[in-house]
Fold this protein.
Amino acid sequence: MKITHVIRGEDWISSTPKHVLLYEAFGWERPIYAHTSLLRNPDKSKLSKRKNPVWASYYLKEGFLPEAMLNYLALMGWSHPKQKEIFTLEEFIKVFDLKDLQAVGPAFDVVKLEWMNGEYIRQMKAEELASKLDVFYAEKLPRDILDKTIPLVQERIKKLSDYKPLTEFVFARPDKYQVDVKSQKKLIGKIAESLESIQEWKAEEIGRVMQELALSENVKNSEFFMILRVAITGKKISPPLNESMELLGKDEVIERIKAI
């Protein structure tokens, strides 16, 4: 088959002499054999298809980018000569040499993989990320909303699958709230009044008016904006609040608050 190199896991070492003898018996030119250390979990246990998701389709469905996966896997048992962690496949091909493979079993750490995937997402142009999100989600997301929300979340998401949980409040009003904001009816009412008074519906102006209200009501900023965030998004964690309110529009924001 004109195969020049056979590169496989170290669990094949014991059978290699048999393969060598077979090549010699048939009078074939023997390929170069190389064996790599087996991937392990962070706790040093063996990575196993019976216990771990080890198929590419799983990671694609989780929102990992193919180029990030290749980059991360390249570092399993090998390191870049310049100690770089982020590099392209083309660069990897240029600098890779079998002699640089390491004997120590590398740990496949999903947390590190998520970090690397996030780095790739942050380096993308907004248009490219919008296209990838459009392909990732089966239901077609409105492109205008994608374009408006990506600047708010691009620095925060590590996987494509992180996008929808962070932005779902933009697509639909929340029907559940992570904090009981209904008990804050009086404060909620004053928030609605203050927001109605805003003439220029911009993030900076929204933030200024809300800061003044929190101060006049003697409510800690952290508590005040947590209540406001939950009233708007349903969650304690969301994209930047003032920018999100600007995106939703004045009427929608006030209607959400009055519906509490």
